[in-house]
Amino acid sequence: MENPKYVHDCDACIFLGRYYNNETSEEMDLYFCGDGSRDCTVLARYGDDGSEYSSGLVSIRVSEPLKEAYNRALAKGVVHQDIIDRLELENIQKALKNYRDVLWRRSLEARKSGKYTESGFAYKTENLMNVEEDIENLISETYVRK
Description:
By secondary structure, the protein is an alpha+beta fold.
């Protein structure tokens, strides 16, 4: 059995093995932390200092070490794919809310500045609502399990 290379002080973490990161030429220790619920994470430790690690389930799409940690956790059965699906859905919903807030603010600012007439503002507002509806439909089609 392989042992961790670096000191890690969280007793709740499950060691998943070592990983060689080709991008940084570093050997890393991979961990899963949590009970498999929404409040779990994966991490890749690359040093003994407390801050020498990267973590986050939402980062598995962009970080090869974290993706590998997640895949190993999946293989061990300590985390399930639906956790990632729910986190991605939450991130999409947050992005949509932010997008909506920015567009509403810009539309109101444009209306106040006189750039849009009442009918122009109503047209922009209707288009915004159509975009929101399209995105919500896409989310439902993509993430709602049958």
